[in-house]
Amino acid sequence: MNNDTLIPYIGVVTDIRQDTPDVKTFRVVSPEGGKVFEHMPGQCAMLSIPGVGEAMFSITSSPTNKEFMEFSIKKCGCLTTWLHAMDVGQQITIRGPYGNAFPVESDLKGKDLLFIAGGIGLAPLRSVINYVRDNRANYGDVQIIYGSRSKDDLVDYKEIIDEWMNDTGIEVNLTIDNPQEGWDGHVGFVPNYVKELDPSINKTVLICGPPIMIKFTLAGLKELGFKETQVYTTMELRMKCGVGKCGRCNIGNKYVCKDGPVFRFDQLGELPDEY
Amino acid sequence: MLKISLDKLDKLFEAISASQTLYIPVDREDGAAEYKKYENGMKLSSALNTLRSAKDFFFPQTENLVDFKMEGQNIEVIDVREESEDFVIFGVRACDARSFTILDKVFLAEPVDSYYKNRRDHGTVVTMACTRPTETCFCGTFGIDAAAPEGDAACYSDGESLFIEAHNEKGQKFIDSISSLLEDGDTAKLEAVRAKTREILKKLPLANLTTDNFGGDKLNEYFNSDKWGELSESCLGCGTCTFVCPTCQCYDIKDFNTGHGIKRFRCWDSCMYSDFTKMAHGNPRLTQLERFRQRFMHKLVYFPANNNGEFGCVGCGRCLAKCPISMNIVKVMKALEVK
Amino acid sequence: MQEAMINKAKQLLADGTVDRVIGWKRGEFAYDITPAVFETAEELEKEFVFDDFTAANVSKYLVKESKKEGKILAFLKPCDTYSFNQLTKEHRVVRENVYIVGIPGGPKLDAEKIKAKGITGILGVKNENYTLKIDTVYGEETMPFYEAILDKCATCKSKKHVVYDELIGDEGEVLDSNRFDMVEKLENMTAQERYDFWRGELSKCIRCNACRNVCPACTCEKCVFDNPNSGVENKAPADSFEENMFHIIRAFHVAGRCTDCGECSRVCPQHIPLHLLNRKFIKDINSLYGEYQAGEDTTSRAPLNDYKQDDCETTVVHERGVE
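^ inputs. structure came back:
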């Protein structure tokens, strides 16, 4: 019998990084070494601890990383709590890759890119950012606006400071919600910060974060003159199969697991408001 | 057409079941019909349809997907799939036969569901034309002819004989396997029976229900209809409609710790259930209105939008008969319809 | 009766006594009645129905409806009033927000029983001197009225309304019903026969949850069977006994609170006689703790929630278990 996508592969967790008080980044390789499968930025995978649960997570590492995949996961429910408690060396099950991807090889090529993220929302964008960094010649200027509740809640802070900020042609703007000792950067919510920074409306925008942040940021972008056709986001709903068959992650006739998770706002606007 | 006298049905069933597993609808004590594995002496039900649909044969209520052995930090994945044995489902009605085409569109779409395909490949569907459709029938709404069912092979009764014809290779193989029992028959009387059935179909109370005003192009219009509140107000949020429906195919995946390992099951699920879309951090369908709307939007709008206009309903009428509060797709269509 | 009820509802809406009315709405066929809330006289005139098929107990809807603004008129049959009382006792409904008009009870008809006679293509059903005249696509059929009544009505326990603000029609009596006959029959079986009976019935279960969701005693905000953290959430049964457990646990949970309204069996798509499980508990409670009818009043203490010195000892389980 042929392989079935519902039968998962084994992945080994080879590194666990505490990113923020409630976010850890897990490095996963196949038992034989190397990646379990290839993916494109924005795609997801179903991770599971049998008996505990199975859930969809975006792959936060870039496909240009040839050695491993990474997942930045916020402690939130049953499965994620278990994942946060496990040790390096733990095997997990993994299946995928699922969903579409950010159009890095088509619509985004040659464009100036503006990434806007809030909190754990950086996870799916990090895959694109590093993909762009590794294929620098294919893209224009890159601006990253990233905010979190506090300095401690900024995911991948070390990578942002040590790598992204040192790259030429990448502008990084960080912000936190409230003033904090040891923070001399910007303070304030992401939507307002975007307006303050007044980015060029020629940029293509990739946005991910809490729904409320997305809502206000999108409104702000429109005020600045951005069109919905320039703005991409990535969605999350409850999933079981990952391949558009179990029937629960639909928004209108589109399945987030299969037709998404990446949507352009004009596409999303045609769908019922149920997410 | 080839035929066998109705009083020789026992012989026919014995012959089929000698080479493969045969399922036929039989009457239960409470008057309901259900599919049973044929054993000698069983009588074919005369009921119009089985209480549960025939989808169980290809998409069972529960099935084991995969097993896991957990040892320390290690996990072993055990593929529990086995090649299905050949089987025949006899007496499937036209509505249920169409439901398989609809299920195929989901489960055989890439990536193919191997569990479903395995059973589909090994199952032969032998249909039976209806002669006594009932008030809850509306298969005609979806272009189904109850007097000419689809399936691998189809049977028609003229009251004396059962006529059989093949629709494809699988059906022909089935007929070949029982050809010694069949003889050529004159279909004049059968044609009269079929014509009469079609007359009755035209007189049924739901005969004029059409899908003309439904389909993928009505997405936001119907989603935002103000009728949903009233339609869903007394919905109990149970899964009766979903579980008796031949086309409902949503499923859940669950793990069980048996004490010796983990079994991962797939089971039927219902969009009517409160936890269907519930996530650790919220639920996009908070009240029964949204869940109720999802079920009917899926059948009348989303499914046709994704499947070249095919609707996710075959008009079998089971939900009309079984919903505890008698709310159903017909009432929804009539209330919602914008001409 | 329907006419009198519509007039009563219109009057109470017009004089401001109530803002809404809960009753039943006509369907596509003679028998497919849907519980519904009406807000205007026009709606009532157009769609309100009360006939031989309006069996649904609307009490449970009042859990939600009585918490809305304004007052709602509920037409309750005698059996429905027991459910309502029990819900009041459990603080699930806001009594002040409900205006109850007691209406005569059944017997009500079960369309499934008509269909089980092989009568198909039903276009209309008329009761003429307790003979049903059934108009069908295939001509007229007849059957005795009493052969088509719901199981719950065949063993009706009471024609008396235990709570109401006003009555339409005369008040009835508590009946000396034969409702425990089948329970006794099951008790007299051998353990194996009984086991086979229940396995046969419960194996039909498709876990649609209709029995639970319709049950006026099942009003938990979050059912243990829907809670992934409970360890018993089981949409997918791990073995063939799990469905049995679901029903047995449910029967335990409603023991002493079940008023025997019979809705569980009425809505079961598989015709499982679920009410017999509940009746066994009712019969046992009657014999072990003294006669008790859940929902009869709103103040008495339920035997299973009350300690009395002369309560039976737990060893009774062992004693009664001996064949």
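The mean pLDDT of chain A is 94. The helical segments of chain A are 78-85, 122-134, 157-162, 190-197, 211-224, 265-269.
thumbs up if we can close this ticket
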